[in-house]
From TrEMBL, chains A, B:
<protein>
    <recommendedName>
        <fullName>omega-amidase</fullName>
        <ecNumber>3.5.1.3</ecNumber>
    </recommendedName>
</protein>
<dbReference type="GO" id="GO:0006107">
    <property type="term" value="P:oxaloacetate metabolic process"/>
</dbReference>
<comment type="similarity">
    <text>Belongs to the carbon-nitrogen hydrolase superfamily. NIT1/NIT2 family.</text>
</comment>
<dbReference type="InterPro" id="IPR003010">
    <property type="entry name" value="C-N_Hydrolase"/>
</dbReference>
<dbReference type="GO" id="GO:0050152">
    <property type="term" value="F:omega-amidase activity"/>
</dbReference>
<dbReference type="GO" id="GO:0005739">
    <property type="term" value="C:mitochondrion"/>
</dbReference>
<dbReference type="InterPro" id="IPR045254">
    <property type="entry name" value="Nit1/2_C-N_Hydrolase"/>
</dbReference>
<dbReference type="GO" id="GO:0006541">
    <property type="term" value="P:glutamine metabolic process"/>
</dbReference>
<dbReference type="GO" id="GO:0006528">
    <property type="term" value="P:asparagine metabolic process"/>
</dbReference>
<dbReference type="InterPro" id="IPR036526">
    <property type="entry name" value="C-N_Hydrolase_sf"/>
</dbReference>
<feature type="domain" description="CN hydrolase">
    <location>
        <begin position="11"/>
        <end position="255"/>
    </location>
</feature>
<keyword id="KW-0378">Hydrolase</keyword>
<dbReference type="Pfam" id="PF00795">
    <property type="entry name" value="CN_hydrolase"/>
</dbReference>
């Protein structure tokens, strides 16, 4: 491996576990501050949580929704540029053509909007006595796969409940992603049961790094997030994890290690394409 | 639900964590004894571990290989019939047409051979300083999906390393399986890292029960098995797990509970078939 390739095989990832209040301006300024803090620690890719500018709840989405570009994405673009980072902008309620989406905008280190991922799978859970949440009450689903390039590796983007669908991760991996990022906000029922397990599963099945950014836990909110933002290695180990408070966690992504894991257990080359396949049917 | 349907929605599963020695006759008689023990405890489906009649190792396979029908499968057929159980006969090295396979024979409660699953994905691992194992040194892979019917539910069969490939479980689930069984024998490196995680991942991603049967640990063997035979619920919880010794673990499979989980988090109906699909390309 030459020197440049070696330099490009490692980079620092930051996952921001943001506290989200009802005051949008506060949410934005704290996000801005923590992106800067992360960059100061050497992060080249920074991930914010789902619904970082608005409380999470179908009744809040119409009120906090913005067009893209708009106030929140303008701020994210500037934060990406000022800190020269790839910024996975969690998600915001997006308004477009009279519909609302749960949308993750991604910015390059020059401030350009690289893509926006509209949550493909809307939350639809009803666990009696525990939690009921139906995003479709106010949101519409997206229909696009979302992959962006960095000088380090390709990155696939999903939002929260998207993580439950193995196919999305499989298609991103087929397209060459070595890192999958999921801004999210699991709750106090599904969080302890599935948040870490799903990340580990996606990581081991696809031999990729997986990062999931949650909002900080706020017991006074109508929707209480589990927290525990994490980064998982291609071997399935949690290499970095937050508790429940607002914080930034870091992980040094090592693509040579990923390559070693893929060589040690070569499932990617052993898949039986003569027997089965996972394919993208169409793209929006 | 009528009375019959209710009765059929629950059944006891037994997973036999067999000690395997170099003496085939001993392995067979212990297997026979433990199948009987399991049936005595009310098990209707019994699962043996991978390579239950032979030490696990490419050098042993040619020596212990049998045709089907042969000595080992004859004994399994009788054990299934005598105890009136569905018997997932772990696996044996099978000889057919000059080739060797790692084959799981499944018998119905009347002793009929319902199917044989030849391991589709052959182990190919090389973790420096830890373990190297290449089944292809002596084995050939199978090319069939393997699903059998019971009065309770459909059951999908994979062997050990097959568990690493999410697609197999996805296709079995699409075909209506509610229980996946994996006779296996992970080792002391991949066992602690991935054995339980893979089972939980398959269970949660597909909302099915997953059972994995390992051989007991034998520190004197050339290949030391991890043990920890397990049954995992559709919610991703380990509901039954062995330690390292020879034993039988039981789980009461509850298909109404499975149905409840699928209703609470309806990912099966939420899959975006307009965007992606997992399909069987051909069947052997």
């Amino acid at each position: 491996m030459d020197t440049l390739a070696k330099a490009m095989s490692k980079f620092r990832l930051a996952v921001v576990q943001l506290h989200v209040s009802k005051v949008k301006a506060d949410n934005l300024s704290r996000a801005q501050k923590l992106v800067k803090e992360a960059a100061g620690q050497g992060a080249k890719v920074v991930v914010l949580p789902e619904c970082f500018n608005s409380p999470y709840g179908t009744s809040f989405f119409p009120e906090y929704a913005e067009r893209i570009p708009g106030e929140s994405t303008q701020l994210l673009s500037e934060a990406a540029k000022e800190n020269a980072v790839y910024l996975v902008g969690g998600s915001i309620p997006e308004e477009d053509g009279g519909k609302l989406y749960n949308t993750c905008p991604v910015f390059g280190p020059d401030g350009t909007l690289l893509l926006k991922h509209r949550k493909i799978h809307l939350v639809d859970i009803d666990i009696p006595g525990k939690i009921r949440f139906q995003e479709a009450e106010t949101l519409s689903p997206g229909s696009s796969f979302s992959v962006f390039d960095t000088p380090f590796c390709k990155v696939g983007v999903g939002i929260c409940y998207d993580m439950r669908f193995a196919e999305l991760a499989q298609i991103y991996t087929k397209r060459g992603c070595q890192l999958l990022v999921y801004p999210g906000a699991f709750n106090m029922t599904t969080g302890p049961a599935h948040w870490e397990l799903l990340q580990k599963g996606r990581a081991v099945d696809n031999q990729v790094y997986v990062a999931a950014a949650s909002t900080a836990r706020d017991e006074t909110a109508s929707y209480v997030a589990w927290g525990h933002s994490s980064v998982v290695s291609p071997w399935g180990e949690v290499i970095s994890q937050a508790g429940t408070e607002e914080t930034v966690v870091y992980a040094d992504i090592d693509l040579q290690y990923l390559s070693d894991v893929r060589q040690q257990i070569p499932i990617s080359s052993q898949r039986r394409s003569d027997l089965y396949s996972v394919t993208a049917v169409q793209e929006g």
